[in-house]
Design a protein that fits this description.
Elements: H1 3-27, H2 31-34, E1 39-45, E2 50-52, H3 60-74, E3 84-87, E4 99-108, E5 111-121, E6 150-154, E7 157-158, H4 160-167, H5 173-201, H6 203-227, E8 231-241, E9 244-255, E10 258-262, H7 278-293, E11 307-310, H8 332-349, E12 369-374, E13 380-384, H9 418-424, E14 427-434, E15 450-456, E16 463-469, E17 491-496, H10 499-504, E18 520-523, E19 526-532, E20 536-540, H11 555-563, H12 569-574, H13 589-608
Length: about 600
């Protein structure tokens, strides 16, 4: 078709998605949506295949495609103009029950021509634990309301019986109703803008452009794969949960213009909610593939065709119902992201043309903390601490990772302002900042992660409760690349501050580091806990993985890291082999050369053992 018309339509499709995202954020009242950007909006063809992948958490682009296809199969002959369908069953298409998909059919002249789909992590879903992550659940039945597909809006009118059923199952019905309303508005805007595009150019022209766009993406990805070397690359991740260790293992094989992701060897499914279902694992491997291999290609069905996934049923990456999956998004899904990122980066590193596109793992483990209880205004509050979206960039083949640089699977993630969190919850921050020595050492350093501490403040009930569903405490999850070291693991500490502690340190409520906090420090990682009185909660999240040998890093750059407090003097000496003068104002060049020679000699001696 005419290339100018094709490009105009392609860019109009981008704008349709963009305007729908803006609508979603403006209507939503949830910080996880409009601050953390835990959302997704995309367009799909009449058969449910992905047409235009939007921003947000990229795991959902392919899972929502399956949601559309499931609705088509289930409601065949009963899909009308103005309908909206709700789906959040993880064993049908969703990632976990808290991620509700709303699927909007788009009709033109009474013919189904396209779909739009969106999701948000709703305020609450009625699981055993508030907020959606339910570490106490041992099956899907206690993880909240779950639907494999139901008609929420019929011919433009909300079905009040269905809405009442959903809101009857959740702890904060008014906020969940606002979440649902924001998605309905989002889909309505996408429908209106798609129909305006079709009215302007005609259905045949738009349809031809859509088919050409999908074919173009497939052609471009296959051409890129042909440029890359054939081979097999492996990666693995360990998750520690309640004293048990689970493994996600990936072997990625590239042959000609195809990629196969084989998760054979991954651990059997867990009794804890870190498992993911098949479609969640499928979406998880695409989340890093889209930005790493297809950054200049439209994300749609064409780039799915060359990809194959092997995930044995009954494993942590393809759990069988009714295994719990509420923590999948920060559990097995994120580990699939990480191993896929590592294998793709290894493949890119083997190419002279694409080696600079390689990156170590970004933000390998989320630190998702949910708070719930009465707020300072006497109302009920449930929500996530959005620091987990702050992330940390992995080091690249030519540059350091970005401190607090987000994450690969969600290009628009961010954390809320301190003032926003303190306005919504009866807490006060002691501090929030990037963490020293958190980025993986390397010739290029991984981006630093962060740390924060909170205490109750102006709480009607004397405090608030929090839900922790952590892993990556014992094992680092932000892997390095090309000789780079992994980033530090995460940490959660519940600090019990009793009267004796307060007597010894009257300024405890103004502590500026975890070491300054008086009281008994209890390491935690899984469960539901009270944060009452003058107790505090300290959380540290991982940085990005390093790239290349730390002993190859420029000493002057290490000095700059020490002076800006992103690297400690001890790490500069012990890991980077850089010796500084007395006041850390300059590098001691002779001592540094000797120190690095000694460290290399120690490596050779250990390898010879």
């Amino acid at each position: 078709m005419d290339p100018i018309t094709f490009e105009i339509i392609r860019h109009r499709l981008y704008r349709v998605v963009e305007e729908a995202v803006i609508t979603l954020k403006h209507v939503s009242g949830s910080a996880i949506t409009n601050e953390g950007h835990d959302l997704m909006v995309s367009l799909y063809r009449a058969d449910g295949s992905l047409l235009m992948g939007g921003v947000g958490f990229l795991h959902h682009l392919t899972s929502a495609a399956e949601a559309c296809k499931h609705i088509i199969r289930t409601f065949k002959g009963n899909i009308d103009e103005g309908d909206v369908f709700l789906l959040n069953d993880p064993y049908t298409a969703a990632l976990h029950t808290s991620d509700i998909y709303l699927v909007h059919p788009i009709h033109h002249q009474k013919k189904l021509v396209a779909w739009s789909a969106c999701f948000v992590h709703v305020y609450d879903i009625g699981a055993m634990n508030p907020g959606g992550f339910s570490p106490e659940s041992r099956d899907i039945y206690t993880e909240g309301f779950s639907s494999p597909g139901i008609k929420l809006v019929e011919k433009g009118a909300v079905r009040q019986d269905v809405m009442a059923l959903l809101l009857n199952m959740v702890r904060s019905p008014e906020m969940v109703a606002l979440d649902i309303s924001s998605m309905i508005a989002c889909g309505n805007v996408a429908r209106e803008r798609m129909l305006a595009l079709i009215d302007k150019y005609g259905f045949k022209t738009v349809d031809r452009a859509c088919r050409s766009l999908i074919d173009q993406s497939e052609t471009l990805l296959r051409a890129r794969l042909k440029e890359l070397p054939d081979g097999r690359w492996e990666a693995r991740q360990f998750l520690d949960v309640q004293g048990e260790v689970y493994r996600v293992t990936l072997a990625m094989t590239k042959k000609k213009d195809t990629l196969t992701f084989d998760f054979t060897g991954s651990s059997p499914q867990s009794p804890y909610g870190v498992n993911c279902s098949y479609w969640a694992g499928w979406g998880a491997l695409f989340a890093p593939l889209f930005p790493l291999l297809c950054y200049d290609i439209t994300w749609n069905e064409g780039m799915i065709r060359p990809i194959t996934m092997i995930a044995p049923e009954g494993t942590i990456v393809n759990a069988k119902r009714p295994a719990p999956v509420s923590i999948a998004t920060v559990g097995a899904i994120q580990s699939v992201n990480n191993v896929a990122c590592t294998c793709i980066a290894k493949m890119l590193s083997a190419s002279e043309k694409y080696k600079d596109e390689a990156t170590a793992v970004w933000h390998g483990s989320h630190v998702a903390i949910f708070l719930f209880g009465k707020n300072q205004k006497g109302g009920e509050s449930i929500g996530i601490m959005t620091e987990t979206f702050g992330g940390a960039g992995g080091a690249r083949a030519f540059a350091d990772g970005i401190d607090l640089g987000g994450e690969i699977p969600n290009p628009i993630s961010r954390m809320a302002n301190v003032e926003t969190v303190e306005a919504n919850f009866p807490i006060r921050y002691l501090f929030r900042r990037r963490t020293q020595d958190s980025g993986g050492p390397g010739r290029f350093r991984g981006g630093a992660g962060g740390e924060y501490a909170i205490v109750p403040h102006d709480a009607p009930d004397g405090g608030i409760h929090f839900v922790v569903s952590g892993k990556g405490i014992q094992y680092p999850m932000s892997e390095g690349l090309g000789g780079g070291y992994p980033a530090s693991p995460c940490s959660y500490q519940w600090v019990h501050n009793n009267e004796a502690d307060r007597a010894r340190n009257a300024d405890a409520k103004f502590a500026q580091s975890v070491d300054e906090m008086p009281g008994r420090k209890e390491p935690i990682s899984w469960g539901v806990f009270p944060l009452m009185g003058e107790d505090s909660l300290y959380v540290r999240w991982n940085g990005g993985g390093g790239y290349g040998d730390p002993l190859a890093r420029e000493p002057a750059t290490v000095l700059a890291d020490v002076r800006t407090r992103v690297v400690s003097r001890e790490t500069a000496d012990r890991i980077y082999g850089v010796v500084l003068n007395g006041d850390a104002s300059a590098v001691d060049e002779p001592a540094t050369r000797a120190r690095r020679e000694a460290l290399r000699a120690a490596r050779f001696a250990k390898a010879a053992e």
